[in-house]
Amino acid sequence: QDNSFEQFIINYCNEKLQQIFIELTLKEEQEEYIREGIEWTHIEYFNNAIICDLIENNQTGILAMLDEECLRPGTVTDDTFLEKLNQVCATHQHFESRMSKCSRFLNDTSLPHSCFRIQHYAGKVMYQVEGFVDKNNDLLYRDLSQAMWKANHSLIKALFPEGNPAKINLKRPPTAGSQFKASVATLMKNLQTKNPNYIRCIKPNDKKAAHIFNEALVCHQIRYLGLLENVRVRRAGYAFRQPYEPCLERYKMLCKQTWPHWRGPARAGVEVLFNELGIPEEEFSFGRSKIFIRNPRTLFKLEDLRKQRLEDLATLIEKIYRGWKCRTRFLLMRQCQIVIASWYRRYA
User: How far apart (Å, rounded) are the C-alpha atoms in residues 160 and 140?
Assistant: First the structure.
């Protein structure tokens, strides 16, 4: 119930993870259909980039204003930080404060004076502003680092490389919020170079008890995790997509015209293959570089046909080999019999 600076930066990280989830699942998938020339009706979804900008914007973001308060001369308190938030973020649709200049929140008596509230993608969270400045300003000062670096113990010395006199940096050490923001940026950059898979966990109840299913809690999580939009995109879109070349290479043995070699373009080969198999036209679409299959059952059917065809080909290879082996043995025995008979007749 009581959220401070620690929960604030954790929720900021969750926002960034949700943002990359949206980018890689909803936005990118719909853009791929448009890129490939597939007929598509855009499905609206909530993009939490506006919430991330509220927190991390270099000029008007909450972290930037917190750093500014920590660095400016004069008397700095949590209340002055909240006043600054009220001035800069007053009209932001995802920021709420009791003292905000936005009139629609002036009558909100449920919000204490020393708190502000952010409407995250997963719901509204209220933060106690007390301690924000001190926790963000929890710096490892230069003299402490230098003292630790002079220790005789090698491990302690290795833990404080910034204390090395040869690497003295006269700049003020970064704040806790700045360090966390940089770490999140590195994480996002790393994730964008990967092909991540997502597992969404739904809590059935708040009691961590078995056999209790809180329908309201589950619906709340499904709604705010973006699962409804994701399901709508998946149902309206295509379950499987693959470039023409590997698709033809994998399933070409299912059609006599494409097996064992197809001499024309890969897309034409896939078209011949799907027409030969009698797959309904509504089950697939041809993009500029990929084949799109709508339902998983169509893909399962292709895989079952391929498995059966591989078994048939294995049986055919085995049959031909056994026939060749028996014929070779027969011809050898026949030749031997002729030689034996000819020598027998010579001495008979």
Answer: 10
Residues in contact with 87: Cβ distance below 8 Å, sequence separation at least 6, in sequence order = 101
Single out the residue of 136, 124, 129 nearest to residue 112, CA to CA: 129
pLDDT at 48: 84
Which 8-state DSSP code applies to residue 336? H
In a domain, 280, yes or no: yes
Residue 302 falls inside a structural domain: yes
Residue 149 · residue 155 · CB < 8 Å = no
* Sequential DSSP letters for 208-223: --TT---HHHHHHHHH
pLDDT of res. 103: 42
Distances in Å between the Cα of 242 and the Cα atoms of 9, 184, 283, 300, 310 are 39, 32, 14, 15, 21
What is each CA distance from 184 to 12, 17, 59, 121, 346, in whole angstroms? 9, 9, 18, 18, 96
Give pLDDT, residue 108.
58
* pTM for the predicted model, two decimal places: 0.66
Look at residue 44 and tell me if it is in a domain.
Answer: no
Give the model's pLDDT for residue 86.
Answer: 84
> What pLDDT is stored for residue 32 in this prediction?
80
Q: Pick out the chain residues at pLDDT < 50.
A: 101, 103, 105
Q: Is 176 within a domain?
A: no
| CATH for 307 | 3.30.70.1590
Number of domains in the chain: 1
* pLDDT at residue 294, as a whole number: 84
Query: Residue 256 sits in which domain range?
Result: 240-316
